[in-house]
């Protein structure tokens, strides 16, 4: 982004402030957990209703498998297994 000039927005200098104020890491984690839990609960509800096309059911299975494999790989990496 070297070719773009920093915008000052009338403040006299570059304005690097967040749009909605400072957010802590704790707030971000809480938001991610709440959003993820809401998504999972909605998918479970949708799945239990039985009004789900087979292509979406296989997509849900694929996504769940991908998330589980990502978690397994992350744990192996963080615990330095195989070094």
From TrEMBL:
UniProt keyword annotation of rRNA-binding present: no
Residue segments, region Disordered: 1-20
Lineage top rank: taxon: Eukaryota
Membrane spanning stretches: 29-47, 59-78
Pfam families with a match to the protein in the record: DUF2678 (PF10856)
Record key words, sorted: Membrane, Transmembrane, Transmembrane helix
Protein name as it appears in the record: Transmembrane protein 243
Organism from which the protein derives: Callipepla squamata (Scaled quail)
Biological classification of the source: Eukaryota, Metazoa, Chordata, Craniata, Vertebrata
């Amino acid at each position: 982004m070297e070719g773009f000039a920093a915008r000052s927005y009338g403040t006299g200098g570059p304005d690097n402030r967040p749009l909605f104020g400072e957010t802590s890491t704790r707030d971000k984690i809480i938001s991610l957990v709440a959003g993820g839990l809401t998504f999972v609960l909605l998918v479970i509800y949708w799945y239990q209703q039985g009004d789900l096309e087979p292509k979406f059911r296989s997509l849900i299975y694929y996504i769940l498998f991908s998330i589980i494999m990502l978690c397994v790989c992350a744990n192996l990496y963080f615990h330095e297994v195989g070094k």
